[in-house]
Design the sequence.
């Protein structure tokens, strides 16, 4: 399989700061299959993401993107296949298990309580406590400001209710929450959908900041323009199979669209010199 | 392509931003918090948000002024005000209980019958089975906790809508209490210990406690404000302005001092009022200063987000229902002591008054919004209406019509606020 060559691409695009010596990707999935009744949603899919790398997961509706993300986030475990985190084989039977090992999924909605302020949301479920188990608001606020600053997030105040924030700011808070939970891998599900131009820019900037922190980032997106702006490597799924891997520097959007839709795929394969079911590394 | 962007952006390496983190305490907040981002809010928006209690307070003041004028000042007489507080204690405590459930976005329609039921359990044990008064009271409270647990079980685990569960519970326990009383319509309580809670001439705090405890509370509040100010200043976080702190301390001292002065110029602070305000203070601390309170608001705001944050949503729901019914039991016991009897008849206005106290005060029926202090404001408004109309010798008819109308207005305001927030929210 091509796993041994694909991480090398990531290596050239961005030097990962704290990479395990083995050269093992931060997160690696091997031979993941999942069926819903007679429908085969994923068939022997491999997936990998390195430290300090942003991987874009793209594909048409029904290609298996969401199913794959659900496998990683523990919402819908796979029928077959193995998952390795930093070289260690792990199992992710439920979302809590994913959180425990440091895999955080940022959903666009459903992640924040609108009625609570930013600090309360960031520490929800893991509040810092002090004297008589009362909330240590000062410590939490300091940590919150620290994280928000490293992500270069600008807010009116950390004490405003999340309901009053813009879409981009809300997304930033949701991402900051995953950092505070000491995430190793962050999955972003359609992070820029339903955002305005300025807010999209804000979120893309945020994703770059995550990469700088040495995190492994997976972005699922329909928006190829966004993907091209921020992603290092694109993995394309089609009909439950991984049909392509592209280094973003040497790829055109047309090539990715072709891989997504399956059009002119034969021609593409010829230029890449790969066979079907194998990962094709674009423009090598 | 990404190369070009990298060059344009030249994002700061994380190390250097870490350095600025320790650059100076003042830089802490400044890097993230941009107050100019704060949307300028109109007075209307402020009234719907942080200053939501102002219209409620205004309503209370209008009601008080109206009744003072039409009763030629009898309304503001210390004796009448002491009576008024005595009247609101029961549904105030029940309102506090129902607030816990309302904050989740649920409702409890069983509080009135549960409160009477628990009082009956206590009275039957104490009067017919000669159980020591303290044990009888504790069993009554425990009964409340169990009833609430059962309600919570059906709401959180079986997932039946709470208004059905608690409506069924309401009917069930009003039947069960008739069964316990075995045909007796009124059971007189003779236990001196139980009567001493609220029903005797001695049910007042001695002056040194009546003045001392509220004074201590205000003092602790002032100290906590100042300590938090100093600590935040030292940590480089944004602080309230000194003026704001002084105002808060002065206003709370005036309110507490005024209330104590009114009580003291009559018979003193009744135990029942001490219980109500003690419980409100306790729950205020729990709801604002502990993880549990934070989690209750989170579940009320978005139970899905709370679940994903790892909060035990089922546990929080069951706990809130248990607390609600336990507080209902407290209210029932205080009421039984006040009247030195338990009756098979459940006061039909008790349920409405309790829920109305919370909702009029500003606790949202949709969950996640409202303070426990709201209950005091709401209860005072309802109490003033009932009391004032009684002074004018208006019957129950007028009183109930007015109350129903006020409740409807309060709920409508709540719904309008919610809609307005959804419109301007994001």
Sequence:
């Amino acid at each position: 399989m091509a796993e041994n060559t694909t991480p090398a691409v990531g290596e050239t695009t961005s030097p990962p700061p704290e990479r395990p010596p083995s050269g093992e990707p931060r997160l690696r999935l091997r031979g993941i299959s999942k069926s819903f009744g007679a429908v085969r949603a994923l068939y022997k899919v491999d997936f990998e993401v390195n430290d300090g790398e942003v991987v874009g997961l793209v594909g048409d509706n029904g290609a298996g993107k969401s199913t794959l993300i659900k496998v990683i986030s523990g919402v819908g475990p796979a029928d077959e296949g193995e998952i390795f985190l930093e070289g260690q084989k792990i199992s992710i039977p439920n979302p809590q298990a994913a959180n425990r090992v440091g895999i955080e999924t940022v959903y666009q909605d459903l992640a924040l309580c609108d009625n609570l302020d930013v600090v309360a949301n960031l520490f929800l479920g893991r509040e810092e406590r002090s004297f008589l188990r009362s909330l240590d608001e000062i410590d939490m606020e300091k940590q919150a400001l620290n994280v928000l600053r490293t992500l270069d997030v600008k807010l009116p105040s950390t004490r405003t209710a999340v309901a009053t924030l813009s879409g981009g700011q809300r997304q930033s808070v949701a991402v900051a929450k995953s950092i505070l939970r000491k995430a190793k891998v962050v999955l972003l599900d359609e992070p820029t959908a339903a955002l305005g131009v300025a807010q999209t820019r804000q979120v893309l900037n945020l994703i770059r900041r995550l990469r700088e922190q040495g995190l492994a980032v997976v972005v699922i997106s329909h928006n190829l323009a966004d993907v091209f702006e921020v992603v290092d490597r694109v993995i394309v799924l089609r009909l439950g199979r991984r049909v392509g891997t592209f280094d973003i520097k040497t790829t055109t959007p047309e090539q990715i669209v072709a891989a997504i839709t399956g059009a002119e795929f034969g021609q593409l394969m010829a230029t890449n010199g790969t066979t079907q079911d194998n990962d094709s590394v674009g423009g090598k | 392509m990404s190369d070009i962007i990298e060059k344009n952006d030249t994002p700061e390496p994380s190390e250097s931003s870490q350095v600025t983190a320790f650059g100076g305490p003042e830089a802490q907040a400044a890097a993230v918090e941009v107050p100019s981002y704060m949307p300028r809010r109109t007075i209307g928006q402020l009234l719907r948000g942080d200053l939501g209690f102002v219209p409620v307070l205004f309503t209370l003041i209008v009601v008080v002024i109206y009744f003072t004028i039409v009763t030629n000042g009898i309304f503001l007489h210390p004796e009448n005000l002491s009576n008024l507080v005595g009247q609101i204690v029961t549904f105030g405590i029940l309102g506090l209980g129902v607030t816990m459930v309302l904050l989740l976005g649920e409702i409890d329609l069983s509080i009135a019958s549960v409160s009477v039921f628990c009082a009956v359990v206590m009275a039957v044990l104490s009067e017919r089975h000669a159980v020591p008064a303290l044990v009888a009271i504790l069993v009554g409270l425990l009964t409340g906790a169990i009833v609430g647990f059962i309600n919570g079980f059906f709401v959180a685990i079986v997932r039946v809508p709470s208004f059905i569960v608690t409506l069924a519970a309401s009917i069930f326990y009003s039947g069960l209490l008739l069964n316990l009383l075995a045909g007796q319509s009124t059971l007189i309580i003779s236990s001196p210990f139980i009567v001493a809670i609220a029903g005797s001439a001695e049910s007042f705090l001695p002056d040194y406690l009546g003045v001392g405890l509220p004074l201590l509370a205000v003092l602790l509040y002032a100290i906590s404000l100042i300590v938090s100010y100093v600590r935040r200043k030292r940590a480089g976080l944004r602080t309230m302005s000194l003026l704001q702190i002084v105002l808060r301390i002065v206003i709370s001292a005036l309110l507490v001092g005024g209330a104590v002065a009114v009580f003291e110029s009559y018979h003193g602070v009744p135990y029942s009022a001490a219980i109500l305000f003690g419980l409100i203070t306790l729950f205020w601390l729990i709801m604002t200063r502990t993880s549990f309170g934070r989690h209750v608001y989170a579940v009320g705001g978005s139970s899905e987000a709370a679940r994903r944050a790892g909060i035990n949503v089922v546990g929080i729901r069951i706990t809130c229902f248990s607390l609600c019914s336990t507080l209902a039991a407290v209210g029932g016991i205080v009421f039984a002591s006040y009247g030195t009897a338990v009756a098979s008849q459940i006061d039909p206005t008790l349920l409405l008054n309790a829920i109305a106290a919370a909702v009029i005060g500003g606790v949202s029926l949709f969950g996640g919004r409202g303070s426990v202090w709201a209950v005091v404001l709401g209860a005072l408004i309802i109490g003033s209406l009932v009391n004032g109309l009684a002074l004018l010798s208006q019957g129950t008819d007028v009183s109930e019509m007015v109350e129903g109308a006020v409740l409807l207005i309060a709920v409508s305001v709540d719904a309008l606020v919610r809609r307005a927030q959804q419109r301007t929210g994001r």
In short: Confidence is low (pLDDT under 50) at residues 1-28 of chain B. Chain B has one domain: 41-203+270-425.
